[in-house]
Write a structure and sequence with these properties.
This is Sigma-70 family RNA polymerase sigma factor. Helices cover 78% and strands 0% of the residues. With 179 residues, it is mostly helical. It is rod-shaped. The N and C termini lie far apart (94 Å).
């Protein structure tokens, strides 16, 4: 298609001629898609950019000055600028990697892990100082979450006795941990 024909079609598009717009699209879409594809390097994004390009052509056809330049250059500039805008809108991979370093790590740091393990060993040592049935009752109550009633049923002791066992056991554990 000749430059004069494209200028004529753009002039008719400026007047709202849909048939001229369809003809312009059919004649120029392959070249403009190639421009978008060369810049974006992704066919899906290039096709989306091309759609935006033709929306822009429809809206800005009145601003085209036939005497000031080539119609092909005007169309190509719109395609190039829209593709570059989309390219800039992409978040660079390097920025994603940099932001990953700023994410907080929910795992405890090595020092905290060491302290936690040390406390765990101390608790185990202190649990060994309790009578065997009292230690089992404490574990079942505070680790497994059994109620006082469930524990009293399992150990065959009255409910108040179980409460006393647990209270005294916790006091002994506190004394041991404070040493």
């Amino acid at each position: 298609m000749q430059g004069d024909e494209i200028k004529d079609l753009i002039g008719r598009v400026a007047l709202g001629d849909r048939m001229a717009f369809a003809a312009l699209y059919n004649q120029t879409a392959p070249k403009l898609l190639a421009i978008c594809l060369r810049i974006l390097k992704d066919r899906g994004q290039a096709e989306e950019a091309l759609q935006d390009v033709y929306i822009s052509i429809w809206q800005r056809a009145r601003s085209f000055q036939a005497a000031s330049g080539s119609s092909s250059a005007w169309l190509s500039a719109i395609a190039r600028n829209r593709s570059i805008d989309l390219l800039r809108a992409r978040k660079p991979i390097a920025d994603e990697l940099d932001s990953a370093y700023d994410l907080a790590d929910s795992a405890p740091d090595p020092e905290r892990q060491t302290v936690t393990k040390d406390e765990g060993r101390r608790i185990d040592t202190c649990m060994e100082e309790l009578e065997a049935d009292r230690a089992v009752a404490v574990k079942r109550a505070y680790v497994e979450g059994l109620s006082y009633q469930e524990l009293s049923d399992q150990f065959g002791v009255p409910l108040n006795t179980m409460r006393t066992w647990l209270r005294r056991s916790l006091l002994k554990l506190r004394e041991c941990m404070e040493r």
